[in-house]
Design a protein that fits this description.
The complex is a heterodimer of chains A (about 190) and B (about 230). Chain A is mostly helical. Chain A has 8 helices and no strands. In chain A, about 40% of the residues are buried. In chain B, strands 1-2-3-10-5-8 form a 6-stranded antiparallel beta sheet. A 3-stranded antiparallel beta sheet of chain B has the order 7-6-9, with no helix packed on it. Classes of the chains: A mainly alpha (about 190), B alpha+beta (about 230).
């Protein structure tokens, strides 16, 4: 039995974003919404938002995706990474009770100096995301757990110390090892 | 950071970059880390990788069901024009002199009154408090600019929480090394240090603290309420 085409692959998501940016394609938007909105809502819920607020933030994030689609650069980040940063920044501003696009955009990672995406950016993105996926799967369990906690527990690593009952130094060194492994895996590939 | 001639030599901890990417840092630390990232290709690469991890984890999330009309609502909103961004007030950062305004400080320079003026704290020490700010939710962190005249010693202190420092101009030294423009210093509860501004020029730093600093000695303790750390 041949596998069904993966409609939610990073490559498919990137192509949907392109159709949205170039043609304001509503069908593409509906497909993208179907994939990301329930996940952004789950992300907000996981970080403590109540159901209604989580859904509002998911709506806001996906609306921002529609308006900002032209600035998506597949040579720089995968679609899910780009959507993640939009959702994250909305959440930060909401927590600080600031207007959207208020602060969190300013104190995010700077845009890289203009490196035009190559023609095969979509393929590169797919390969890069696959590589990272594989590297994450091979992290030792205690490192993988901390990485997930850093993203899904809204607390600084000094509090993770109390949460897990391991010393802060260990939290930091495990995250360092995890990032080094991931970076090594990505360098090996490029 | 027009005085930045070399890439920074003191970097952010990987754990800090992961927390920045995850959106888990307090408001003040976020600005300090972003200011370091602005001038640090090494940390930018790691931060980008950490964001990609965030993207992967988002993809893996078990989807949460939406209300039945969620898609219809979303599609209906597409027809409305994007809300026009209100005109941005001009940035005012005269306090920084000829130091280029770090992008993460732009929202602060656009407040009424801009970054504001240096206020005297102690001989050779001036500061400008940026956070907490009126009207914003507080998360217990403070953000401020500190200006040390050449040779000024900051009283020895420990930390009840975390302190992050990014140097904007000049340099200082303590037992952790010499810190120049773009360098990031992170001190947690276990670190005690006594920074001394190097000779030659004022040392200007952007500092975030997440809990009050603990100063030692009676004279130093008197500073504590003044600095409002």
């Amino acid at each position: 039995m041949s596998p069904a085409p993966d409609t939610a692959s990073p490559e498919a998501m990137t192509l949907l974003l392109r159709r949205i940016a170039e043609n304001r394609d509503r069908a593409a938007y509906a497909a993208l919404f179907g994939h990301f909105a329930p996940r952004v809502k789950a992300y907000m819920r996981k970080l403590g938002a109540a159901d209604a607020q989580a859904e509002d933030l998911a709506q806001e994030a996906l609306l921002a995706v529609w308006h900002k689609a032209a600035s998506f650069d597949p040579g720089r980040a995968g679609a899910s990474t780009w959507v993640f940063t939009i959702a994250r920044n909305l959440r930060i501003d909401a927590l600080r009770k600031l207007p959207k696009g208020g602060m969190a955009d300013a104190d995010s990672l700077p845009e890289p100096a203009d490196d035009a995406p190559g023609a095969d950016a979509v393929l590169e993105t797919r390969a890069r995301d696959g590589r990272l996926r594989a590297a994450l799967d091979t992290l030792p369990a205690e490192q993988a757990r901390l990485v997930k906690l850093a993203f899904y527990e809204d607390r600084p690593h000094s509090e993770i110390e109390h949460l897990l009952g391991i010393p802060l130094g260990t939290v930091k060194s495990r995250l360092r090892l995890a990032m080094q492994r991931l970076r090594a895996a990505m360098e090996e590939w490029s | 950071m027009n005085k930045l001639q070399h890439p920074p030599v003191h970097h952010a901890a990987e754990a800090t970059l992961v927390c920045h990417a995850a959106g888990g840092l307090d408001a003040a630390s976020r600005v300090v880390v972003a200011t370091h990232l602005h001038g640090c290709p090494h940390c930018q690469e790691l931060a980008r990788l950490a964001e990609a991890v965030g993207g992967q984890l988002l993809d893996e999330m078990p989807p949460e069901s939406l209300s039945p009309d969620a898609l219809a609502y979303a599609l209906a909103r597409l027809d409305r024009p994007a809300p026009a961004a209100p005109p941005l007030p001009p940035a005012e950062s005269a306090a920084l002199g000829d130091i280029a305004l770090p992008p993460a400080l732009l929202p602060y320079a656009r407040r009424p009154g801009g970054l504001g003026r240096w206020r005297w704290v102690a001989p050779g020490i001036r500061h400008i408090r940026l956070l907490p700010a009126p009207g914003e939710a507080r998360d217990g962190s403070t953000l401020y600019l500190l200006k040390l005249a050449p040779g000024t010693k900051v009283p020895e202190h420990g930390h009840g929480g975390n302190e992050m420092v990014c140097v904007l101009a000049g340099s200082y030294s303590d037992r952790l090394g010499r810190f120049g423009p773009g360098d990031l210093a992170e001190a947690d509860a276990n670190v005690e240090h006594q920074p001394v501004a190097d000779a030659g020029e004022d040392c200007i730093c952007l500092i975030a603290t997440t809990a009050p600093l603990r100063f030692h000695g009676r004279a130093a303790r008197l500073l504590q309420p003044v600095l409002g750390f």
